[in-house]
Amino acid sequence: MKWIYTNDDPIIQTLIGCAIIFVVIILLTRIVGLRSFAKFTAYDFAFTVAIGSIISSILTSSTTLAHGTVAIAGLLMITFIFSWLQRKSPFLSNLISNAPLLLMDGNTILYKNLKYARIEEDQLIAKLREANVLNYDQVIAVVLESTGDISVLHQASHDSKEKFDAKLLSGVRRKP
């Protein structure tokens, strides 16, 4: 039964640590900004995983609350600095971030782009279904975003009077 509970389990410390780390995360996020937990780039994803790992270490008593708080604050500062540098340097932005990739142009599936992105046609079709696309003629574009999400831009019907704003595809690569 020791794998369920032992008398020396730091349950009270863990609960107190939860409350403190919750407040620390809120305060640091308010200082650095919501961008700190956005999913725009690969480093954003790595940052989120690292923060989760640090919180886990704190709550399971693998590291102290002070050590974990400093680690989280350090990662948040690095994220803040990188986002500032990305705004200043297009080269750094291109180096860190993947540009979105066009997977469908209108009703045409771009098979080379699917292959490059390692996305199967069945996965693309599943995303079209999720977006309630009834036929390929409704599709304006399908984009693999830099976050790994797939966006489907489509019209409700082929006869729709809605005008598509081409700015929505600015920065999207047409070829890998």
Question: Averaging pLDDT over every residue, what do you get?
Answer: 84
Radius of gyration, CA atoms, in whole angstroms: 22 Å
Strand order within the widest beta sheet: 2-1-3-4
The coarse silhouette is elongated
Cα distance spanning the termini: 56 Å
Largest sheet: 4 strands, antiparallel
The string of secondary-structure elements, in order, is: HHHHEEHHEE
Count of discrete alpha- or pi-helical segments spanning 4 or more residues: 6
Approximate strand percentage: 5-15%
Number of domains: 2
Class per helix and strand makeup: alpha+beta
Low-confidence stretches: none
Which range best describes the helical content: under 10%, 10-25%, 25-40%, 40-55%, 55-70% or over 70%?
40-55%
Description:
Keywords: Cell membrane, Membrane, Transmembrane, Transmembrane helix. It holds the Pfam family DUF421. Belongs to the UPF0702 family. The protein starts with 10 loop residues before the first helix and ends in a 22-residue tail after the last strand. α1 (11-32) runs parallel beside α3 (65-88), α2 runs antiparallel to α3 (65-88) and α3 (65-88) crosses α4. The mean pLDDT is 84. A hairpin with a 2-residue loop joins β1 and β2 (108-109). The chain is an alpha+beta fold and 176 residues long. The protein has six helices and four strands. It folds into two domains: 11-95; 98-169, bsu07140 like domains (CRO Repressor, 2-Layer Sandwich), CATH 3.30.240.20. Strands 2-1-3-4 form a four-stranded antiparallel sheet.
